[in-house]
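Re: that backbone. Tokens:
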């Protein structure tokens, strides 16, 4: 019988070969994702391996069966959970990933959005099965950013390797490529010869003292809509004015990334269908320099959104062809826009050359004299003007409260006294002047303690862009006033909306839900301050691991995180230090009466991807 194949042996051999092949494929898939060269093991949208690594990127949402991934949400002792020793590195093409503003996600999910309403530039966060669980790599050749104030005028080209704006806006002095750097001459679409001259011209139009736009401290917070690379906001800083520079991730890609790389306050957002993430009466001035916005659409709803966020007597500076051109189309727009703002009770404060500045009324007198049925209507009494997170805009005018109507203005002290003066809206939360003063003093001591712990690691120009992830009354930022920094004060969407107190102190910030990714590019902040942030999302059932990955995404290499939380949270974070390439810098017991909290400071290491992944530099 030699030469005759045994059927049972053949079957066993085929079975063994198949099992070995399946095992080898599994090993290749798993370890390839961890150690793939140049991030070739990147995790694609929808990859089931994301969840097996212990986390759905930025969610804490339920799995398909309604149960959360226990290993990614457990903050205490994780006897059953798995803490990863390393995270895979995302593909290089995701080095600028913004999870909730990702156009690839919109295309892949076939979201039906109205492009004419800019819905495709609004936040659309990935569902659990499409979230990333990997570290965002820096671009090839990334360097530690240039320090402020030099960074206002130049950045490393390698850090944001996009030069199309330099060519597209070459006649407007937005930016110029020079060797390994990108320079910013201070120009803009409407101010080719420099933002500083343009700003002085606006102050002169309003008859402000010495042509300084801050008007002796009475004009402090500005909203710059369609800001480009934020040169307008950058040049306002020398006048003690802080601007929230706002632009979408549109055809002028990376404009907000350039702004933040320069050390200028900026936020990714759009005037679309949802309210901006700022409370009512936040800004003394809104500005639009050829921002290409159709202000007449939908019964003037976008102008009415500006009206909502402007303070009593606030200004809207509009530089655009409609303000001066004489062709038929521009004249039509100008007439209709003038009629609209007149019905909104705005008046022209000044008009010169190519710029018009309107002013909002100080109280409700004009609103009460409008003819019945005049459009736009007044908002209903149950319309909360400070509710903003995911709230649709409404084409209505927000009236002042009885208190504000009688006060005929915001009642705020001029800057810098505004920073430490209890604002009138403090009473909205039942807070007393004494409580406000005590909070300010407590955070002054805490920040002094933080800086003593950081002393060996930082110099005067190490830190520029700061985020307070749970700002409360803004006292952490207030304590940093003498530092050469600016602070993005973030207030959780589900707590007391104290962001209006933050703005009333002459600071800026936004509302956010930390169960989702923040609207910013990777590597945009030098320091994150997390006071009880992880404890809060633990109570909400969101994933602590996911939040750590998000914090890593927005933190610059060599940047710092200050965690002030309970000991169990700190122990949880320590398990992830190696996987995140973070290094413990300091630990300290709380120096105030909150004895159950500890301070833990970490630093993000510089790591790069090249032909192979390198742990650190």
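Recovered sequence:
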């Amino acid at each position: 019988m030699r030469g005759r194949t045994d059927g049972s042996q053949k079957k066993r051999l085929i079975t063994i070969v198949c099992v070995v092949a399946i095992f080898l494929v599994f090993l290749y898939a798993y370890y390839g994702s961890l150690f793939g060269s140049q991030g070739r093991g990147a995790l694609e949208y929808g990859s089931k391996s994301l969840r097996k690594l212990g986390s759905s990127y930025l969610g804490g949402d339920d799995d398909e069966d309604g149960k959360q991934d226990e290993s990614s949400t457990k903050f205490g002792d994780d006897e059953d959970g798995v803490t990863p020793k390393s995270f895979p590195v995302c593909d290089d093409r995701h080095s600028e990933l913004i999870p909730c503003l990702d156009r690839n996600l919109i295309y892949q999910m076939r979201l039906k959005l109205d492009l004419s309403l800019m819905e495709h530039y609004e936040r659309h966060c990935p569902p659990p099965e499409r979230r990333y669980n990997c570290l965002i790599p820096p671009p090839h050749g990334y360097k530690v950013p240039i320090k402020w104030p030099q960074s206002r005028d130049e950045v490393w080209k390698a850090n944001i390797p996009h030069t199309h704006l330099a060519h597209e806006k070459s006649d407007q002095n937005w930016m110029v490529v020079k060797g390994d750097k990108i320079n910013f001459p201070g120009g803009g679409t409407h101010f080719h010869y420099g933002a500083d001259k343009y700003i002085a011209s606006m102050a002169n139009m309003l008859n402000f003292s010495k042509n300084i736009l801050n008007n002796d401290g009475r004009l402090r917070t500005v909203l710059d809509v369609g800001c480009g690379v934020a040169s307008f906001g950058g040049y306002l800083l020398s006048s003690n004015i802080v601007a929230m520079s706002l632009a979408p991730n549109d055809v002028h890609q990376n404009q907000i990334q350039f702004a933040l790389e320069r050390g200028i306050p900026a936020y990714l957002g759009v005037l679309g269908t949802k309210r901006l993430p700022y409370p009512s009466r936040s800004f003394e001035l809104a500005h639009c320099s050829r921002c290409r916005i159709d202000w007449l659409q939908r019964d003037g709803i976008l102008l009415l959104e500006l009206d909502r966020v402007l303070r009593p007597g606030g200004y809207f500076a509009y530089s655009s062809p409609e303000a001066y051109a004489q062709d038929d189309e521009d004249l039509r727009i100008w007439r209709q826009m003038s009629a609209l703002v007149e019905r909104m009770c705005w008046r022209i404060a000044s008009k010169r050359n190519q710029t018009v500045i309107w002013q909002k009324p100080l109280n409700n007198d004009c609103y009460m004299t409008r003819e019945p049925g005049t459009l736009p209507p007044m908002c209903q009494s149950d319309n909360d003007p400070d509710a903003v997170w995911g709230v649709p805009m409404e084409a209505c005018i927000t009236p002042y409260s009885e208190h504000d109507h009688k006060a005929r203005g915001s009642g705020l002290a001029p800057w810098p006294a505004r920073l430490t003066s209890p604002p009138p809206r403090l009473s909205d939360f039942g807070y007393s002047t004494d409580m406000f003063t005590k909070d300010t003093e407590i955070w002054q001591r805490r920040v002094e303690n933080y800086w003593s712990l950081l002393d060996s690691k930082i110099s005067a120009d190490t830190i520029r862009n700061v985020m307070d992830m749970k700002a409360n009354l803004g006292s952490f930022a207030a304590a940093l006033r003498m530092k050469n920094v600016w602070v993005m004060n973030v207030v959780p969407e589900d707590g007391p909306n104290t962001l209006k107190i933050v703005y009333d102190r002459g600071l800026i910030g936004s509302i956010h839900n930390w169960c989702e990714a923040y609207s910013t590019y990777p590597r945009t902040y030098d320091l994150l301050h997390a006071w009880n942030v992880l404890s809060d999302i633990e109570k909400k059932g969101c994933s602590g691991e996911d939040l750590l990955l998000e914090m890593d995404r927005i933190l610059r290499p060599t940047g710092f995180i200050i965690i002030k939380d309970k000991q169990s949270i700190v122990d949880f974070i320590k398990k992830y230090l190696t996987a995140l390439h973070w290094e413990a810098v300091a630990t300290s017991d709380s120096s105030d009466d909150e004895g159950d909290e500890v301070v833990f400071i970490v630093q993000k290491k510089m790591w790069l991807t090249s032909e192979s992944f390198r742990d650190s530099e």
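The first strand starts at residue 154 and ends at 156. DSSP finds 19 helices and 17 strands in the chain.
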